[in-house]
Design brief:
Elements: H1 2-21, E1 29-31, E2 38-40, H2 41-57, E3 62-65, E4 70-71, E5 78-85, H3 87-92, E6 98-105, E7 108-116, E8 121-126, E9 131-133, E10 136-137, E11 150-153, H4 162-172, E12 178-180, H5 185-194, E13 199-203, H6 207-219, E14 223-227, E15 234-238, H7 240-249
Parallel strand pairs: 3-5, 11-12, 11-13
Antiparallel strand pairs: 1-2, 3-4, 5-6, 6-7, 7-8, 8-9, 9-10, 13-15, 14-15
Helix pairs in contact: 1-2, 5-6
Length: 254
């Protein structure tokens, strides 16, 4: 069954990525949580395309989408969709934005696909089936210690909550190898899975940001965890050695 879900997610993700590559000459911008948290007509167009494509193949499945898709599942499978993760990158013409599609059952994600056409990248995983990047099996960097770590992060759109993030970065920079801020959470988590980053953490992500990428990460041997309460929950992904160090360093408690 996972093979069928994976094939569908990969096809729909690739088709949605191709749709988004045709960037419009002008954007219709709406605000979401704050004035700097934006949604464009392309986010909505991509989500509508993905939902329609998935339901055409599997009409009894549920849907959870960033732009409002909410359908109760009759089959036991619910799709969790971020049609355009990295909207600000997309808006400014920067690479790394992606389409994130996960299928979950009552125990969590069973299939995850993250498609990033501007960097010619597709990651996927199935529960118990390993994680892959463009068809090649991948694994997390392990063991890595904090003083050698190359870490990805991101910052809240609600600027009132950036002080703590700046404080953490300030404490971290004198210790670690370096920090990257790429602007698309799902790709960052997948970069941990393939060893292009040693760890990733961010506050304020939603389920659609991590539903697909977290499966890719865990199937590649990473630990993945959520701490605190929404909307400011902290997400952390890393190999087990570094994960334990960062959990302590960031003062995270389950």
């Amino acid at each position: 069954m996972y093979a069928e879900l994976l094939e569908l997610a990969r096809k729909v993700g690739a088709d949605a990525g191709a749709l988004l590559m045709d960037r419009p000459p002008a954007f219709e911008i709406e605000e979401k949580s704050t004035a700097i948290d934006i949604v464009t007509q392309m986010d909505k167009k991509a989500e509508k395309f993905i939902v329609q494509s998935l339901l055409a193949a599997r009409p009894d499945d549920g849907m959870i989408g960033e732009e409002g898709a909410a359908i109760e599942s009759k089959s036991g499978i619910t799709w969790v969709i971020d049609p355009l993760d990295g909207t600000v990158n997309y808006f400014y013409g920067l690479p790394g934005w992606n389409v994130s599609i996960a299928a979950k059952d009552s125990e969590g994600s069973v299939v995850g696909v993250v498609t990033a056409p501007t960097i010619n990248s597709m990651w996927w995983a199935t529960r118990g089936g390993g994680a892959f990047f463009n068809g090649k099996k991948i694994k997390v960097n392990e063991p890595i210690e904090l003083n050698r770590a190359f870490i990805g992060t991101g910052f809240q759109y609600d600027v009132a909550h950036r002080d703590r993030q700046i404080e953490n970065v300030g404490r971290m920079l004198p210790i670690i190898r370096d920090i990257r801020r790429n602007g698309a959470a799902a790709v960052d988590i997948c970069h941990v899975a393939m060893g292009a980053l040693d760890a990733y953490y961010e506050d304020g992500l939603k389920e659609w940001d991590w539903a697909a990428a977290s499966l890719v990460a865990t199937e590649a041997g990473a630990r993945f965890g959520l701490y605190g309460q929404a909307p400011y929950m902290t997400t952390l992904a890393a190999g087990s050695t570094l994960y334990a160090e960062l959990e302590s360093f960031l003062n995270l408690h389950a």
